[in-house]
Design brief:
139 residues; alpha+beta; Arc Repressor Mutant, subunit A; 3-stranded antiparallel beta sheet; 5 helices; 6 strands
Length: 139
């Protein structure tokens, strides 16, 4: 499969994923990047150059709020991100869609799995066809 296709699929899910990461409690930017990188085997490496622009867009859209903490005393102050009410509503809607979407894809994939033709060792050139969980012989 073309790697661009996989990248686009992942990119399309990043808003949902980032909102889920900050759903329970506020997180600062690097903490969000680190959490995403815990799942890098599937998502790939999260980079600041991808995550921070996404956080900015979510802030501008009113989905997340940012709080700056300058008590650290050194370097730039940390920015903490949390969901707004609008963000919670959007996340709920995204989750509903995702679960419906993934159920649909799972159903289609299971149809493909059920229609696999398996060669039977008991019959020379006969095949056992598995359809809807039932086995039938084909000549």
């Amino acid at each position: 499969m073309d790697i661009n296709t996989l990248g686009q699929f992942k990119k399309g899910a990043m808003e949902l994923i980032v909102l889920c990461v900050i759903e329970k409690s506020e997180k600062y930017g690097y903490e969000i990047v680190s959490t995403l990188n815990e799942y890098s085997s599937v998502l790939g490496d999260a980079r600041e150059g991808t995550v921070y622009p996404l956080l900015y867009r979510l802030c501008v859209g009113g989905y997340i709020a940012v709080r700056t903490d300058s008590r650290q005393g050194r370097g730039n102050p940390k920015k903490y991100y949390s969901l707004t009410d609008k963000g919670k509503e959007a996340l709920d809607e995204m989750k509903r869609f995702w679960f419906e979407f993934s159920d649909c894809v799972d159903s289609i994939l299971s149809l493909k799995r059920e229609s696999v033709v398996v060669q039977s060792e008991s019959f020379d050139d006969d095949f056992v066809s598995v359809i809807d969980g039932r086995k039938s012989l084909e000549a």
